[in-house]
């Protein structure tokens, strides 16, 4: 994950410190802002696509309580978890509320559905720039997604799915200048690197292939889903906030579901999923790797009386291996797709 306070350290590179300390005119300030515009654009692009990734529970799950699996298993694998990764997780607050509404279904089971999602992401962290005090950086992304999905049943086992969704995203950045060092740079960064907001439109085409089968009481599904993200900020006030983010991620894995009791019609299910997620574009640096692994398991209760809006609820555990958010978390499961 990236935080915009890294620009303080960039500004302090040799040669820039003298310029900032001695500047006395608006043109000098504007020139410094112009030189760091590409860094702001990169960070804003990464923030927008990362917020989209984190709102997709199938590829990255954040929970209500985080832990380091190494401490439970007695291992020392840095790719499985670390104090730094847990601190990053603790700085994140994320909510995603997806829904799916069946629009049309054919005799052979093909479906056209409307999909939607409301999501919010908050990143809040104290930044220590000197020994005396810590400044507060906070980033918030609110998004509303709407899309259409077409599911095609090729055989009893094979399914294909195509989906296209559009998202409106609102990004807010706030920074409290507390330390003397931060206050010294306020004329340069305020309104450019910090304390600004911007809107963006993001689009996401998705192609998915499933293979399903059943053995005794257990249902299995192999899946491969490719997502592409692209968009643009709207009516940006300055060049630094005029960005066109793009990224992709590809998840491959297996899901299992079986009734808690022997009754195959039980409303309670044991669910698990293992997947590998490859990422590219502006997602590579925030996730810290070109790929990572996710393992999730939980207890689900079907909720038919809520219709398509809340199909199931549950609780479980999710493990992430190899990304910036590596580690374990207790998760609240919501609207896990049936198969």
Automatic annotation (TrEMBL):
<dbReference type="Pfam" id="PF11557">
    <property type="entry name" value="Omp_AT"/>
</dbReference>
<dbReference type="InterPro" id="IPR021621">
    <property type="entry name" value="Omp_AT"/>
</dbReference>
<protein>
    <recommendedName>
        <fullName>Solitary outer membrane autotransporter-like beta-barrel domain-containing protein</fullName>
    </recommendedName>
</protein>
<feature type="domain" description="Solitary outer membrane autotransporter-like beta-barrel">
    <location>
        <begin position="36"/>
        <end position="335"/>
    </location>
</feature>
């Amino acid at each position: 994950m990236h935080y915009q306070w890294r620009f303080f350290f960039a500004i302090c590179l040799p040669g820039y410190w003298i310029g900032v300390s001695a500047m006395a005119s608006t043109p000098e300030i504007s020139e410094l802002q112009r030189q760091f515009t590409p860094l702001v654009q990169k960070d804003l692009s990464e923030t927008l696509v990362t917020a989209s990734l984190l709102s997709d529970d199938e590829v990255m799950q954040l929970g209500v309580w985080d832990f380091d699996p190494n401490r439970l298993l007695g291992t020392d694998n840095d790719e499985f978890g670390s104090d730094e990764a847990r601190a990053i997780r603790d700085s994140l607050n994320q909510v995603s509320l997806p829904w799916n509404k069946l629009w049309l279904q054919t005799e052979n089971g093909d479906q056209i559905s409307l999909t939607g999602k409301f999501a919010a992401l908050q990143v809040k962290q104290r930044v220590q720039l000197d020994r005396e005090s810590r400044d507060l950086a906070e980033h918030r992304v609110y998004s509303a997604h709407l899309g259409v999905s077409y599911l095609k049943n090729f055989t009893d086992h094979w399914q294909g799915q195509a989906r296209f969704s559009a998202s409106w995203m609102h990004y807010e950045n706030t920074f409290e200048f507390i330390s003397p060092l931060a206050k010294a740079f306020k004329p340069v960064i305020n309104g450019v690197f910090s304390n600004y907001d911007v809107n963006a439109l993001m689009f996401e085409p998705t192609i998915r292939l499933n293979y399903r089968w059943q053995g005794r009481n257990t249902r299995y599904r192999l899946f491969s889903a490719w997502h592409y993200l692209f968009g643009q900020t709207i009516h940006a006030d300055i060049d630094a906030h005029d960005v066109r983010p793009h990224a992709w991620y590809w998840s491959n894995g297996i899901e299992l579901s079986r009734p808690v009791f022997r009754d195959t019609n039980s409303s309670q299910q044991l669910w698990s999923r293992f997947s590998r997620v490859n990422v590219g574009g502006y997602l590579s640096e925030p996730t810290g790797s070109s790929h990572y692994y996710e393992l999730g398991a939980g207890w689900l209760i079907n909720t038919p009386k809520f219709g398509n809006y809340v199909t199931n609820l549950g609780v479980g555990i999710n493990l992430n291996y190899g990304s910036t958010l590596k580690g374990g978390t207790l998760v609240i499961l919501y609207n896990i797709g049936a198969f």
